[in-house]
Amino acid sequence: MQNTQNTGARQLCLRLTRYVAPYWDAIILATGCMIATAATVPMLAALMQPTMDEVIANRNPELLQLVLLGIISLFAVRAVAGHLATYVLHWAGSKLAVDLLCEIFDKLLVLPHSYYESCPGSNHISVDHVSRITSDAPEVARAFVNVMTVMIRDTSTVIGLLGWMFYLNWPLALLILLMSSVILLVTQLLGERLREMGRESERAIEGLTRILKGAALNFMVVKLYGGEQYENQRMREQAEEARRFFMKRAAVASLYVPLIQTIGAAAIVLTLYFAANEAVASELTTGSFASLITAILLLIVPGRRIAEVGGTFQRGLLAAGSLFSLLDGEVESETGTVVIQRVRGELQFEEVGYGERTERNPGTSLKVRSLGNSDPAAVLRRGLNSGLHDVTLIIQPGETVAVVGCAETMDVLTYMVPRFLTPTSGRILLDGHDLRSITLASLRANIALVSPHTTLFNDTVAANIAYGAMGRATEARITWAARAAHASEFIRKLPDGLQTMVGDGGVELPVSQRVRIAVARALLKNAPLLILNEKLGMLEPDSVPLVQAAFDTVMQGRTTFVIADRLSTLEKADQVVMVDKERIVDRGSHRELMARDGAYTRLIRRVFGSKTAVAAR
């Protein structure tokens, strides 16, 4: 296991060098400056010898001037070289973080639809996930800067000080090195023990959290089945276990500093004892003794940083491993080779299936959900596992097909058109071309999407309308699209008009205004295929007519897949397709389906109710 971990760490380090290699000149400069900084430390210790032996003992004022000049010069070198090394090393680290973030963002843009599914166990994207990505790259950069600093500057400082100490008195220096090794070993062992106890404490807290969460989520079961005493006992036992782990860690932590201080004091006393004996025996001068003690004191700080660098290194490797696991993920499959221009918009579904077939009980009645309950986040959390089978459907250019019934199945149908999902059986043709043979870019260039759940980017209104490939659209075209989407009136009232920032996700605007901006975006694109989700339940009541009018405008002259939520849409649609969890159960015009007095009729009566409710729609 240890060998495997070492191999993994080595591979991560080698992989990180690919990101660092382009900045080799900066790293060489920083290395030279850090070595120069490190060299000044033993020189400062060495200056103590002539200061004590000549300046003080022999009262040599001329040498004092040279010593003071030397000290000032060394600190000037430390200041300049240290500042340059720190700046250049942080510059290289920041470039490393930016390169990682840019590569990760490029990867996110080509990941398959399955990556974004918010179902349990999937690699879904979330606010926490994005925060972790944006924090991991700086963590790698911080680890790079800290490890490089310790490896070069602090290690060089320790080597220089030890070299000077061996030059002064090698037996004493060897004793000091041995005692320092003991201190570092004790520090490392105690540190590892503290980290292990910290992990045990965290696991105990997680167990306590699970008990509390389980009791809160299942409070009805707890109350109905008399589980209060049982849950209370479980909570108390887990809380006591967490307290025991906490106290164990507190006991070790409280011993940590006194123990290190005691060992350090014993080492210093032992060193002073032997050094004093050497001085008494005239084998060590006063200046050499002072220089040796100075070197010992100067060893403490870089030695401690060397002992603690392992934790920083491990955190950096964990962050790098998390980022590389994302970078190594599979990208969206590009099977197409045919580049299409603007299509006519004929769609054919030939025995299309998606997912695994589920058995239906012969006597099971058809259960149909609301017409338009199609929140993409909710659908993705359900995993789109509706088991769609044997869908055969022909849509002529310019036709409007209204889909009603099971929300999951409606989304599977619509998501397969832009190839966010790929059929597991059958095929879909666009103007006679199998969708799998068309390149993703040219296929999606012919499709527009409008949904009330569309979120906007943290940019201006104009940038959200003329988004992406439409970024070069003139202001006149953007204004036309806004006017056609019935959005120009509220845009004129915004503080900066089209240049008003809409905030993260468009939070500065009401839902109805965000939807009309999405309609304006689709109008500006002028794609021959439109996927429209017209669920209006979450909109402000006074703005519903404007949004409905915008929907009517954007549907004109396009092949439209509409997840219907309005009776008027169903009445105007060329085809109405009713789906359950597996297949199309009925199709035809609204009038034809109502005449059959079947499941569709029951759905319409249940959703739209009385004539008053119908008229309101």
UniProtKB/TrEMBL annotation:
Compartment annotation: Cell membrane
ABC transmembrane type-1 domain location: 28-315
Any Pfam family hit: ABC_membrane
GO MF annotations, alphabetized: ABC-type oligopeptide transporter activity; ATP binding; ATP hydrolysis activity
Keyword Transmembrane helix: yes
Domain ABC transporter: 366-606
Topology relative to the membrane: Multi-pass membrane protein
Transmembrane segments: 26-45, 66-89, 170-191, 253-276, 288-307
InterPro entries, per database record: ABC1_TM_dom (IPR011527), ABC1_TM_sf (IPR036640), ABC_transporter-like_ATP-bd (IPR003439), P-loop_NTPase (IPR027417), Type_1_exporter (IPR039421)
UniProt keyword terms in alphabetical order: ATP-binding, Membrane, Nucleotide-binding, Transmembrane, Transmembrane helix
Entry protein name: ATP-binding cassette, subfamily B, MsbA
Lineage, highest ranks first: Bacteria, Pseudomonadati, Pseudomonadota, Betaproteobacteria, Nitrosomonadales
